[in-house]
Amino acid sequence: MKYLIIILMPLVSYAETIKTGQWDSEAHFKLNSIPLPPKKDSSCVTSDEAKDPKKMIEQSLKRNDCELTKWVLKKGNVNAIVNCKNDQLEATGTITGTFTKKNYALKGEVKGRHSLIGNATAKVTFDGTWVGECVAAK
Q1: 53: which of 4, 13, 44, 122 fits an S-S bond (Cβ 3.0–4.6 Å)?
Q2: What pLDDT does residue 79 have?
Q3: Which band of pLDDT confidence, cut at 50, 70 and 90, is reported for residue 46?
Q4: Could you give the residue ranges of the DSSP H alpha helices within 1-138?
Q5: Do residues 128 and 38 touch, judged by C-beta distance below 8 A?
Q6: Which own/partner pairs from 74-79 qualify as long-range (CB within 8 Å, at least 24 positions apart)?
């Protein structure tokens, strides 16, 4: 199930240049056709992060023993391939979708073999929206 986490990096980063500020996102998963609880997130994207979204994705993937092997970003559309490999998991997946500076809608499928559950397929959808300036930490 670790390969699900790699996709949760704030996906607001898929635009060539995105709007800086606070982003809310929601991810939905089905693992071997079984729905899992959705994951909601809110993150602050800085101006430096907004300039190089591909680098942000690559850093997140690396922390989860995964790498981005394809990245095509053209006219508001993203097409990416992710490969993951560690002691428990070997998986490959695709992510496709649309985005603007203020929102995105992505979907993907990751297939692989997990040491505990065997063959696994995860279907994912991600939606995100820019909500305004960054919220100060309390």
Answers
A1: 13
A2: 92
A3: confident
A4: 2-5, 47-51, 53-63
A5: no
A6: 76/15, 76/100, 78/14, 78/106
Residue with tokens 């809608």: 105
Supply the pLDDT for residue 7. 43
Please list the residues that pair with 14 across neighbouring strands.
none
Let me know: does 42 contact 10? Beta carbons within 8 Å.
no
Most confident of 19-23, 46-50, 83-87, 103-107: 19-23
For residue 51, the 8-state DSSP code is H
Tokens standing for residue 34: 């079984």
Query: Which residue type is seen at 28?
Result: H
Residue of 108, 131, 128, 132 lying closest to 26 (CA atoms): 128
Distances (CA, A) of 95 to 14, 52, 69, 109, 122: 10, 18, 12, 7, 12
